[in-house]
Write a structure and sequence with these properties.
heterodimer; A: 9-stranded mixed sheet; 28 helices; B: Rossmann fold; 6-stranded mixed sheet
Chain lengths: 849, 232
């Protein structure tokens, strides 16, 4: 038996509370990071598997503009180029009541061309009756699991809503996935013949794309690409298969990074918990360690002893954290997927993916963070002088001497952080580095601020609470090695809450104001979209006509929105036929509205959104180039307008300009202006009945659309709120443990006071006054720190992540709440020690020491 | 082999407090022979503990050197001094400083384990020593169950268990009542003097000094030998 190790182990067993708190700190920190990582990875994996399964073995694809490609391109690829490894594809989103809330991918293929691409769809495959698929114009094939889930069998009819149009398909067969990956990839796919999907979409002769398998040999590939250039019409592009999915996936980068940064915050708070528990355990054992050193235990042996304790805490905490993380990840994946579906693209996540690298990263992070957090404790233990008599005051003297140094370092970090944040760069990593530097700097300034604050309130406390008040306040500075980290942690936790709160409040306020301006029409109509934040698909021309004829309408705007793949990723391009009343919905950053609309309507200029302008560095008067059906076309920017609908940016052009550039006359949504005195509800009802059964449409009043938009906004921030709560929870446990430890450590002092006649009630006063002072200091310091964080998040992080500017809005309630939160936390932490010390006999308290 | 166990030569140590330089030891020298029981008397702040720290290698002098059993501690680095301490020095502290999470017997075994001598004989030896100090039946108890006198007897046994060349005691009876202190002093006599051990004890206690072969005092930073009058 190693007695040094035994002494350490038994110490831990005698202080189970501290051990549990340390382990909990690691476990919660790791859990939050792993859960977020798993949720993000699972959404990405589901997206990739689905994209790859649908893409099959294609190496390239020919993709058309907003109106797709004519069938003839495929014929030319086959006949003129003799490219047998080519397959026509029509893709669309569909929905069905049988799978409520699931966006279905309707894939139109030519089974005879499929063999080189998607063998599971090639003629003669198990469960796939090619003849039926070709002969029945409504035939579709479903994956087995989807059919089972929808209670469908071969021969059943299936009601589908394809881009809002009601269609009835017939289940002609089921697909058996060859493996688990294919099963997951095909989970939401419905397959039909090309002609069937074209009919469903009312787009005869138009393809979404043509898949190709080109030779891997570079010269041969280049030769085919050159020939394809000759055939491919203007406005279409030949892309490698990864381009589109990379663009989609790339859209999530900022979203992922923001979530990861938030999850790391929980780990930082977890580290504080570990730091606190480990340091406390060392401070408590200062005499024991001094004795060991005097008896001949070397510094290396002490390092190993405390290091092993930290390692054991890290390993146990991390193991538990990985388990919690998986459980938490299952909950968070829903929130993450919801946000991705709301803002970016439709994805269905069937199950949580557990990539070994995420678990390995969690393990490394957990154990590494524990060892890092325990390092000051190890140093403290090693530096414990092996003197004959150990005194606590020696340690406190050293800490007091460190206060100015910590403040200088803190000031330096804040300055460094500000410098990082002002570097003209779009790097988010740089922004977060700056943000964390400011946060850490503020934490290091806390001890000095605490000392100054306590000195300032000392006379007041003495006058109001008497000698107990003085005692409580002096106790804060006398045990600075324990109080300063607790206050710092509370400041960090509360300031992050304030910062995020102000940021979300400002964001929401800005969006509300923007919606009030943007939503000028009285009624909006669009087909149902799989993505909540924007309209997709097209309205049936007949429906548009009938809706426009509804009595009471004074004017209308039409909107055609589509995604274009550009060299910088996906771009939303919009064609607007704007009613003059709708012009008020635009707020321009750099030009007068009249000038902008003059150029927009008359000279074929475009309006670009603020995020687009920020990302591409353009302003009014600049020229941008878009790939249109006429080939690459330069367009002048008439103005930059505020927009919070798309972080990737939007380019808007007049419908007349659009018609000259694209062979596409479809309309995605409509905004109607009603005549004065007309009842909106009545018109809405009339529109619903006028739309008829041909196409499902969403008719919403201005207020309903505004509410729906805010609902999406709130849903988007739901995960932020959850993470904020989790991070605060971890920090709160840390502060609770630090303050409890501090009070319990004072057992002897309180015992002496009790022996000298302090009543249990006075013990309560003493303890709660002290924790109250700590809470108040933390709360007051957290407010300016939180506001600084909010400024950074609004002016730097948001701008660099999404490219938009927000108006900072600070509610007094939020700030009061922060001070209250800090004080409540601190007072709560004092309850147990106050209760314990008031009930313990003074003799026992003295003896225990 | 020389009969001198501890040799202090021209030892100096000072502290700086603000602008003030406080000289604690000023080029002082002394020798203690094998089997001697030497007491270092002096008021608080006279430098007794500083000297003990320097002798044990816990602290380093500003000048001069300390030699124990022929080894100059000042020439050793921190780790070597620690290893030397574990092998050659036994400690008795004023506040006993027993490890609260080890049982009484384990507290005795610790120096043996550190010295790499934790074998079956070690257990025998620990138990025998506990018997000698009158605590044979308390080996399985934890220190917090023992009275102050009992704890100091355990500390004494721990200081002796690994056969150190030199035993250093810092106020060994300072925290005990006179009767208990007297019993511990008797044990010192039995275990140290009778077994031929070398002991350097720092104390205020004239009773302890009365048991010593020689009494030293620190005056103006220098060790001087004083003659003791018999205790009444």
């Amino acid at each position: 038996m190693n007695l040094v190790r035994a002494a350490s182990r038994r110490w831990a067993l005698r202080h189970p509370g501290q051990v549990v708190l340390s382990v909990l700190g690691v476990a919660l920190g790791v859990a939050v990071v792993v859960a977020i990582d798993l949720a993000i990875q699972s959404s990405r994996a589901a997206f990739e598997v689905s994209t790859e399964t649908v893409a099959g073995r294609a190496t390239h694809r020919i993709e058309g503009g907003p109106s797709g490609l004519p069938d003839s391109v495929f014929t030319r690829v086959r006949t003129e180029l003799g490219l047998r490894a080519s397959a026509p594809v029509v893709e669309a989103w569909a929905a069905s009541e049988r799978w409520e809330g699931t966006a279905l991918r309707l894939l139109g293929v030519d089974p005879f061309s499929e063999r080189p691409f998607r063998p599971y769809l090639a003629g003669g495959g198990p469960g796939l009756d090619v003849d039926v698929l070709l002969n029945d114009p409504a035939a579709v094939v479903l994956p087995e699991a989807l059919a089972l889930d929808g209670g469908l069998e071969v021969g059943d009819s299936l009601a589908l809503v394809v881009e809002g149009r009601s269609r009835v398909a017939v289940v002609a067969g089921t697909l058996t996935a060859a493996d688990e990956l294919a099963r997951r990839g095909l989970a939401d796919v419905i397959v039909a013949d090309v002609a069937t999907v074209q009919r469903f979409l009312d787009r005869p002769g138009r393809l979404t794309r043509i898949d190709l398998v080109l030779s891997e040999e570079p010269a041969a590939e280049a030769a085919v690409l050159a020939e394809l250039d000759r055939i491919v019409p203007a406005g279409a592009r030949v892309l490698t298969v990864g381009t589109r999915s990379d663009s989609l996936s790339g859209m999530l980068r900022a979203f992922d990074l923001n979530l990861t940064a938030l999850s790391l915050l929980a780990l930082v708070f977890g580290m504080f918990l570990i730091y606190n528990a480990m340091t406390f355990s060392v401070v408590q054992r200062r005499e024991l360690l001094g004795s060991l050193r005097a008896l001949g235990v070397t510094r290396g042996e002490v390092t190993r002893m405390i290091g092993m304790e930290a390692l054991a805490t890290g390993v146990v905490g991390t193991t538990l954290g990985l388990g919690f993380g998986v459980v938490l990840g299952r909950g968070l994946v829903r929130l993450v997927t919801q946000t991705i579906n709301d803002l970016y693209f439709s994805v269905t996540v069937e199950s949580l993916t557990l990539p070994p690298e995420v678990l390995a990263k969690g393990t490394l992070l957990g154990v590494g963070a524990t060892l890092l957090a325990a390092w000051p404790a190890v140093r403290e233990a090693v530096q414990a002088p092996p003197r004959m008599a150990q005194t606590r005051s020696l340690g406190e003297d050293r800490v007091r001497r460190l206060v100015p140094r910590a403040a200088v370092s803190g000031g330096g970090l804040v300055a460094g952080g500000v410098v990082l944040l002002t570097i003209p760069s779009r790097s988010l990593l740089l922004s977060f580095a700056g943000l964390f530097a400011v946060l850490l700097g503020a934490a290091l300034l806390t001890p000095l601020a605490t000392v100054v604050f306590v000195r300032a309130v000392l006379p007041l406390l003495g006058a109001t609470v008497g000698i107990l008040g003085t005692l409580a306040a002096r106790g804060v500075t006398a045990a600075l090695s324990r109080t300063a980290p607790a206050v710092a942690a509370l400041v960090v936790a509360v300031s992050v809450t304030v910062g995020l709160g102000v940021m979300i409040q400002s964001f929401r306020g800005t969006v509300v104001e923007w919606l009030d301006h943007t939503l000028q029409a009285d009624i909006y109509v669009s087909p149902p979209s799989p993505i909540s934040s924007r309209a997709e698909g097209a309205l049936d021309p007949g429906v548009v006509e009938r809706l426009s004829a509804v009595p009471g309408i004074a004017g209308r705007s039409t909107y055609r929105g589509t995604e274009l793949l550009t060299d910088d990723g996906l771009l939303r391009v919009v064609a607007l036929d704007l009613d003059p009343r709708g012009e008020a919905s635009f707020r321009f950053l750099d030009v007068e509205a009249a000038d902008a609309f003059g150029a927009f309507r008359g000279a074929g200029a475009v309006l670009v959104s603020e995020p687009y302008a920020y990302r591409n560095g353009v302003e009014a008067g600049d020229r941008i180039e878009l790939l249109t059906d006429r080939g690459p076309t330069p367009l002048e920017v008439a103005g930059v307008f505020k927009d919070y609908g798309s972080e990737r940016g939007v380019v808007m052009m007049a419908r007349t300009t659009w018609s000259q550039l694209y062979d596409d006359d479809r309309i995605t949504s409509l905004g109607f202006f009603l005549a004065d005195g007309v009842d909106t509800d009545e018109v809405e009802a009339a529109m619903r009945s006028a739309a008829g059964a041909d196409q499902a449409v969403v008719v919403r009043s201005n207020r309903a659309l505004r509410e729906a938009s805010l609902e999406v906004f709130d849903r988007t921030f739901a995960i932020t709120a959850v993470l904020r709560a989790l991070a605060f929870g971890v920090a709160f446990i840390g502060v609770l443990s630090a303050l409890m430890a501090l009070q319990l450590e004072r057992g002897r002092e309180l015992g002496v006071l009790r022996a000298n006649g302090l009543t249990p009630r006075q013990v309560w006063t003493l303890v709660t006054t002290q924790t109250g002072v700590l809470g108040l200091v933390a709360g007051l310091l957290a407010v300016p720190t939180g506001l600084a964080l909010a400024v950074i998040m609004i002016e730097v992080v948001n701008r660099r992540s999404f490219g938009w500017t927000l108006d900072m809005q600070v509610g007094g309630g939020l700030l009061l709440q922060a001070v209250g939160l800090a004080m409540a936390g601190a007072l709560l932490a004092g309850l147990y020690p106050a209760w314990r010390m008031s009930r313990t006999s003074p003799a026992l308290a003295l003896r225990e020491e | 082999m020389s009969d001198v166990v501890l040799r202090i030569h021209e030892l100096s140590r000072h502290y700086v407090e603000g602008d003030r330089r406080h000289v604690v030891l000023d080029r002082t020298s002394a020798e203690i022979r094998r089997g001697e029981f030497v007491v270092l008397l002096g008021p608080s702040g006279s430098g007794k503990s500083t000297l003990l720290n320097l002798v044990s290698g816990i602290d380093r002098p500003d000048g001069g050197w300390v030699e124990i059993a022929g080894v100059q501690l000042t020439e050793l680095d921190e780790r070597e001094r620690t290893l030397f301490r574990r092998n050659h020095i036994g400690f008795v502290f004023q506040f006993f400083n027993l490890l609260p999470t080890l049982t009484v017997e384990e507290n005795l075994l610790l120096p043996l384990e550190l010295k790499g001598r934790l074998d079956a004989d070690a257990h025998e030896r620990a138990r025998a020593l506990l018997e000698t100090v009158g605590l044979g039946d308390r080996g399985g108890s934890f220190p917090d169950r023992l009275s102050g006198g009992e704890q100091q007897r355990v500390a004494l046994a721990r200081a002796l268990v690994h056969d150190p060349e030199l035993i250093l005691a810092d106020e060994p009876t300072g925290n005990l009542d006179p009767a208990t202190g007297g019993r511990v002093l008797d044990l010192f006599d039995t275990l140290v003097r009778d077994a031929g051990r070398t002991l350097l004890a720092v104390t205020h206690s004239r009773e302890l000094a009365a048991h010593a072969d020689r009494v030293l005092r620190i005056e103006d930073g220098r060790l001087v030998e004083v003659a003791m009058e018999p205790v009444a």
